[in-house]
Prior knowledge:
5 helices; 3-stranded antiparallel beta sheet; alpha+beta; 5 strands; two-stranded antiparallel ribbon; 133 residues
Amino acid sequence: MAGLxxxxxxxxRVLINxxxxxxxDRRSRFSIMTPEANVLRLRDAIHPDEVNxxxxxxxxxxxxVLSGDTEPDRARQQLLRRxxxxxxxxxxxxxxxxxxxxxxxxxxxxxxxxxxxxxxLLPREERLMAYQQ
Length: 133
């Protein structure tokens, strides 16, 4: 099993199981072999001030599980409900596929995979929000 492969830029930071790690002066690549490890690239993290749309709220809630600030068991049901709510808005086939991936990841307690899937909806949501204004 290859595990999750992280490719980090110089000085890039990543949060793994609640611990912030900073890469050195060179690009590096390493594999995380523990399947239950919670990983969050800090460059991908959503700041609390940026949580102002439905998709961002679900991403942020998922991010809180990865950072260790929320218990996975408590968050999973709430996240599943929120993903279901998103499915009422994102009805195209591609968005449905993304939401199905996020749901499957949640059911398997793979929160990183869930966050990765949900982030794919951010550009679509941005377009929808811009269209409504």
